[in-house]
């Protein structure tokens, strides 16, 4: 199966470098995506531009792909299911829930000079970054790509209720499946509460398992694609 890999904020396709060979060895075709404004040098990209890039990859896939979104990009993966419910086999969300219709894509941190730069590690101290050593933190911060404001502040639009028939697996890194279930049950994601086939998988990592647990993450993704 083609597995489309969408990294979260401040990351480009290279975030998946250690996951790609593992998925290939497990018999899948990983397709890491570089999004407009996050790795292609553009600073004026919009959320719609990023979604168009994801949909182009869905349309070019061999058969029906699984679309994987990490963190904030869980919303992009869900937008792809909304726009192509007949073409997306499954959605996997790593460490994130999709933003609701009418919400901003990622209105989490300050925008400066038209971009949302990486805010440093203070907001992520605790379970998020517990498994990142100092060298990994420094490399992440150095390589972080500021997110265009029109992406971060872009408004999410969901229009096709057929998306609820697309199976979803929530991969739980810095939180547990039990916590994710409770959050969804208490209103954290009205959309996920309506998904017909919703599964949860635990992975023992911080918020960036592609960096700290690439082999384990590839195994989880391959199992989700195979099921």
UniProtKB/TrEMBL annotation:
One of its GO terms (molecular function) is hydrolase activity. Keywords: Hydrolase. It holds the Pfam family Abhydrolase_6. Residues 3-218 form the AB hydrolase-1 domain. It comes from the Bacteria. This is Alpha/beta hydrolase. It comes from Streptomyces glycanivorans.
